[in-house]
Design a protein that fits this description.
Radius of gyration: 20 Å
Shape: elongated
Largest sheet: none
Strand content: under 5%
């Protein structure tokens, strides 16, 4: 309701879905570089070689991907990542808001 300080279920779903999508897309370059470095480290441990540049540290890897692959490279997999995180974030925050409203009414 208008007088209630709590969000409606639809508003909560909309806000949390949007937040989940934006967070996923904005942090995708960091996750992409982390994953590539993990694969590189695992391949090195197994004695395998991976084609392409070897990353020495996180920021060098981030710069290398940005320089060689551009914005498309940094955002590779962003929609898939968002498709995973949006429902999770929406369910979590909507349940939280509903429980918070329920407990506020009881007290």
């Amino acid at each position: 309701t208008r007088d209630s300080p709590h969000l409606s279920t639809i508003a909560s779903l909309t806000c949390s879905s949007t937040a989940g999508a934006l967070a996923s897309i904005i942090t995708n370059p960091l996750d992409l570089v982390k994953l590539r470095m993990q694969v590189q480290r695992r391949a090195q441990a197994l004695g395998a070689t991976i084609p392409g540049e070897t990353y020495n540290h996180f920021f060098a890897a981030l710069w290398s991907v940005a320089r060689t692959e551009g914005i498309r490279g940094l955002l590779r997999g962003a929609l898939t990542r968002a498709a995973f995180h949006v429902p999770n974030t929406a369910c979590t925050f909507t349940a939280y808001e509903a429980l918070k409203a329920y407990l506020a009414e009881r007290s």
